[in-house]
Amino acid sequence: MAISFEIVFFGVFAGIAVILAIMMLSVKSPVHAALCLVGVMIMLAILYLMLHAYFLSVVQIVVYAGAVMVLFLFVIMFFYSPGASDPSRMSVHFTHIAGAIILAVILLAVITGSFLLSGNVSLTEKPSAAQMTDIEKPIAETSEAPLTEETSRMIEKQNPQLVGRMLFTKYLLPFELTSLLLLAAMVGAVVLARRSPPAEAGSAGGDGND
Amino acid sequence: MTDVPMFYYTTLAALLFSIGAVGVIVKRNPILIFMSIELMLNAVNLSFITYSRYLHFLEGQVYAFLLITVAAAEVAVGLAIIVALFRSKREVDVDAASLMKE
Amino acid sequence: MTLMDIVWAAVRAAAVLVVTLGGMAYLTLFERRVVGFFQRRPGPNRVGWQGLLQPIADAVKLLFKQEIIPRNADKFVYFLAPCISLTAAFMLFAVIPIQSNFAITGIDAQTSLGLIEDVNVGLIYILAISSLGTYGVILAGWSGGSKYSFLGGLRSCSQMISYELALGLAIIPVVLYAGTFSLNGIVIAQQGFFGSLLAKPVNLIALIPIAIAGVTFVISMFAETNRNPFDLPEAENELVAGYHTEYSAMKFAMFFLGEYVSIIAAGALAATIFLGGWAGPLWFGPISGIVWFTAKTMFFLYLFVWVRATLPRFRYDQLMKFGWLVLLPVALLNVILMATLVVFGIGLTPA
Question: Are C213 and C174 in contact (CB under 8 A)?
Answer without folding.
Answer: yes
